[in-house]
């Protein structure tokens, strides 16, 4: 069982849900406005009562409810982050970008394998993600509980060098650590530390995006294949990416998301999310 959490950035029109349960074979659709930005993650080990109150073992949002209600994931959590371009029928909205920016981030640690695939769009539209089970290789000093999740070095130790803060708060002074390099080696297309933009942020226009938790071997190959090019001149990852305003004239184009699953033989559940004009969430039990 997986309980997706959703957080819309400030200034974005919220999606229809901020958190729910996905059972094996279940699907759900959501719709995002042009200019929407935010993040998705998977919560695990959740217990909710008949009133929808409870908590999760990993990536809990602290709302004491199944809905996250504007709260983000408690680290460690694997995150899929998006900024959707503003696009109208007649073309781009003045002063905004038609590009979608997306990434999978391990900056807040890791709790589940995740891949993001783009289809039907134009541009680079690369596949990204972290499909390696980092919980199995997590160093003892970063390990959560019995291996349910793996902390970032910033979360574990809290010093400025690992957190890219204070005197290390710029791309020139914050460099990869031995821990972020371990994450990067396992998942070369994911953010491993705060300024890991060049190889970790991807762009596309008008695509469908599928976010897969615990993906299949096919997704694993595409998301770790170093021969596929990455984007250049990438903006910072959400939430530092600029929030785009909705098209004031309205638009028939809406980005969408889909969640589904895989048959990969691993001891975790599988979940897929596709992000385009609307969001369909689907879950398969392994």
From TrEMBL:
Pfam families with a match to the protein in the record: Thaumatin (PF00314)
Disulphide-bridged cysteine pairs: 46-56, 61-68, 125-204, 130-187, 138-150, 154-163, 164-174
Top-level lineage group: Eukaryota
Keywords assigned by UniProt, alphabetized: Disulfide bond
SUPFAM superfamilies: Osmotin, thaumatin-like protein
Alphabetized InterPro entries for the sequence: Osmotin/thaumatin-like_sf, Thaumatin
Region Disordered, residue ranges: 17-36, 217-241
Composition skew (Polar residues), residue ranges: 217-235
PANTHER family: OS03G0233200 PROTEIN (PTHR31048)
Official protein name in the record: Thaumatin-like protein 1
């Amino acid at each position: 069982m997986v309980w997706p959490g959703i957080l819309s950035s400030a200034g974005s029109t919220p999606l229809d849900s901020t958190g729910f349960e996905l059972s094996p074979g279940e699907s759900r659709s959501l719709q995002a406005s042009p200019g929407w930005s935010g993040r998705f993650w998977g919560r695990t080990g959740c217990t909710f009562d008949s009133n929808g109150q409870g908590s999760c073992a990993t990536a809990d949002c602290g709302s004491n409810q199944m809905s996250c209600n504007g709260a983000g994931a408690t680290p460690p959590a694997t995150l899929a982050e998006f900024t959707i371009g503003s696009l109208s029928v007649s073309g781009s909205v003045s002063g905004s970008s038609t590009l979608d920016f997306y990434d999978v981030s391990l900056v807040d640690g890791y709790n589940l394998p995740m891949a993001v695939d783009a289809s039907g769009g134009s541009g680079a539209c690369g596949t990204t993600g972290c499909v390696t089970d980092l919980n199995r290789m997590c160093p003892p000093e970063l390990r959560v509980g019995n291996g349910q999740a793996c902390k970032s070095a910033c979360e574990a130790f809290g010093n400025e060098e690992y957190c890219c803060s204070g005197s290390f708060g710029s791309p020139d002074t914050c460099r990869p650590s031995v821990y972020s390099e371990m994450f990067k080696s396992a998942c070369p297309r994911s953010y491993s530390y705060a300024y890991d933009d060049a190889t970790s942020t991807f762009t596309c226009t008008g695509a469908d995006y599928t976010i897969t938790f615990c993906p299949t071997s096919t997704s694993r190959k595409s998301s770790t294949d170093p021969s596929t090019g990455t984007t250049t001149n990438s903006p910072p990852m959400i939430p530092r990416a600029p929030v785009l305003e909705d098209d004031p004239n309205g638009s028939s184009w809406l980005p969408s998301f889909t969640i589904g699953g895989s048959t990969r033989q691993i001891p975790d559940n599988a979940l897929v999310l596709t992000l385009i004009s609307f969001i369909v969430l689907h879950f398969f039990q392994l």
